[in-house]
Amino acid sequence: MSLQVDFAPPVGYQEPKRPEKKDAEDVDMDILMVMKEKESKKRKEVDEVPAVGNFVLTNLDKYAGDWPQLGKVLKFEEEEIIQLHWYKGSKTGPWSPCTKAVPGTRGKREAWCEAVNLQDIWCHSFNLTPSNKLPLKIKKKMESFLNKKRMKKNHATKEIETQITGQKSTGHQIDFAPPVGYQEPKSPEKTHDEDLDMDAFSGSGNRLDGKKIGLDAAPEVKKSVPHKRGIPNYKYKKGTITFIRTRRNITDNNEVK
After folding, report:
1. Do 84 and 71 touch, CB atoms closer than 8 A?
2. What spans are recorded as compositionally biased (Basic and acidic residues) (predicted)?
3. Residue 91 counted as domain residue
4. What digits encode the pLDDT tens for the residues 15-25?
């Protein structure tokens, strides 16, 4: 005879609930939700790709001087390459198609078209106003795009300056100590030669007619006279002016006779 022993469950134990079987209506609702999600994803993918005939704004480095860069989508050449027809104009003025000269011909022009990568397009899926101007919402997007571009440029400039000057983000400058035993080079002291002889206008000069000067008269030979410093007037009184009418002779020992 076999006895079956039943153990009591632990305190607070609850049996796991089995998933309830869904009715046919619940299954249909789940299918509809999945289909709606797929449709919304497809719409997003369509919105992310510019449509043919709409206008786009690009940011190409080779046309950095021309802003804004506006083009009309003509066709899709590859998965991420589209053909654009460039337009010319200004932010507030009307826009018109661009043309370029046909090479090898005189006076003939054709539409200026170019293949552009989708990664270079930052705004798309819009049209011009009846007066061929940019819509107001596109102008606002352009302003925000330019502000972000300026902020990135300023941030990059600050990083370069930080690397060059050795400044951290805190703004403190790092000073490096000079090597051991380093001495700054001394600049040579300028000396003034008091006994320097200087003859002003010692050249002979030339005449306009080509003749030489001083053929008749013998040239004067100037004697080199040592430069002597002047002697101050020790008898000078403050508030007076003295006019010296006589010439004073100065000896070699700087004495006045």
Report:
1. yes
2. 15-24
3. yes
4. 777 766 655 55
Q: Which two tokens stand for residue 88?
A: 């010319």
Closest CA relative to residue 225, chosen from 256, 190, 196, 188: 196
- Report how far Cα 177 is from the mean position of its chain's Cα atoms: 33
Q: What's the CA dihedral at 136, 139, 141, 145 to 10 degrees?
A: -170
Range of the domain at 128: 55-134
Determine the straight-line distance between the first and last CA of the chain, rounded to whole angstroms.
160
DSSP 85-153: EEEE--SSS--EE-EEEPTTSSS-EEE-EEEEEGGGEEEEEE---TTS---HHHHHHHHHHHHHHHHHH
HEC profile for 51-66?
Answer: CCCCEEEECCHHHCCC
Per the DSSP assignment, residues forming a β-bridge with 111 are: 99
Domain assignment present for 118? yes
The answer, as to whether pTM is greater than 0.85, is: no
